[in-house]
Amino acid sequence: MNTITSKQTPWQSKLAKTTTFQQLVREHGCVQVVSPQQLQETMQTWERTFQNIQFFPAYKAIRSPALLRTIKKQGWGIDVSSQGELEQALKEGFENISCSGAKSNKYLEQAVQHNCLICVDNFSELQRIQQPARILLRIANPEYSEHTDIAKKTRFGIDKKELPAIRTYLKEHPYLSHTGYQFHGDGYTPEMKAKIIEFFLQEILLDTQERFTPEIINIGGGIPVLKHENAQEIQERVVSLQRGEYNSFLTPEKKQEYEKLLRKELTKKQPQDYIQEILHTQSSQGVSIQQLLKECQVQLMMEPGYSLFWNTGCSGFHVIETKKIEENYVIVEGTMFSMSSRMFEHIFDPQLLSNQKQELYEAYIIGILCREDDYLQGRKISFPQQPKTGDILFYFNTGAYAHYETTESQQQQKPAYYYLSEKGELKHDL
């Protein structure tokens, strides 16, 4: 059986075996559990390793108030991307908030009112700010942001060609405090990110000649994380895809997406290693990026999302039944939105929690929406035996973006959300 195994975080492996968790899944159909302790451990590790970086976790990556409180308790800031996220962050007592994304007038007004750091998306947005405010200029196309099949173009940010006009505007409107620059992009190598930092340092030099005093470079998220347990499993799957031996996909596009994600997974590093490589890359000045930032007295800022939260959560789905119409299907009490399948393909196989022992069974996992496209994953999953009514499919490491798109579509019940307390008890999270 050719399976792809996700890293099995100890607290999740232990949770999956508990009667309490399994009963909750059977009661609610779909359950998401997060661990504030896991998040705190990761944050403390990053703090010890990177004492000169400000981390503003991306609120959009989670739905958990318990995780949000953990970030606040640790004394970190938070990056929000909507008015609703801003209001929730303020309710939790955050004072150090950066505001990203496209902004309605009300969102922008609240960001100004609460002295948030506003990541300006375009020139027009900048012109809508009519009161004193701290701003970062989000640049869409820094000079060194090459685009590949992994590092893609972005629709967010300002064209760098507009910077001279923006500097003129800022001089004419001195109530706007030009604090620095932001860039966000996925799939960029450490060397590419280092070059982008150097590009911004050059822009800051131009700014100082115009008597601005920017002091922050925010390179966003897009920090990779190595999630697989066994690289050989992935390599074998890639080989089988190339030979055409593995064709269990809904569409050719899903197959191409899956192969690309597998290849990308094989090149990933641990977040700490990736960040260290950025900092230790030699600049054109003959010193490391870390040293250059220090000499220029510029603060580096990052907005980790997936890389910070991935192992803080897990999900369980109750199996309703199986069926066959040419292909095998496992029907679970969840939907494609539960796995945010429109946002990304989950490349790892779920674990079947079952007492049954039968022959191998390959099937698609489908949800309960009255929609033809309600598949939790775009490929067949190989199970050690045919799932039965009452069994549970357990997904490791769904702490980031899982259930991101969850809605009450067709009035279906939302997942039940819990967090694991310090005493090991499951408590309601939402």
Report on this structure:
- The structure is a single chain.
- The protein has 430 residues and is α/β, with parallel strands linked by helices.
- It has helices at 10-16, 19-28, 36-49, 65-73, 83-91, 105-113, 123-127, 163-172, 190-209, 231-242, 252-266, 271-280, 289-296, 306-309; strands at residues 30-34, 53-55, 78-80, 97-99, 117-120, 133-138, 176-182, 216-218, 299-302, 313-325, 327-332, 351-353, 361-366, 381-383, 392-395, 416-420, 426-428.
- It is globular.
- The two termini are 38 Å apart.
Domains, number: 2
**What name does CATH use for the topology of the largest domain?**
TIM Barrel
Mean pLDDT across every amino acid position: 92
Rounded to the nearest angstrom, the distance between the terminal CA atoms is 38 Å
CATH class of the largest domain: Alpha Beta
The number of strands is 17
What would you say the CATH architecture of the largest domain is? Answer: Alpha-Beta Barrel
Strand content: 15-25%
The rounded Rg comes to: 23 Å
- Describe the main β-sheet briefly: 9 strands, mixed
Share of residues in helices: 25-40%
**Number of helical segments?**
14
- Per CATH, the superfamily of the largest domain is Alanine racemase
**Basic shape:** globular
The structural class is alpha/beta
Low-confidence residue ranges: 147-151
Brief descriptors of the model:
2 domains; 14 helices; 430 residues; nine-stranded mixed β-sheet; 17 strands; alpha/beta; eight-stranded parallel β-sheet; TIM Barrel; globular; Lyase, Ornithine Decarboxylase, Chain A, domain 1
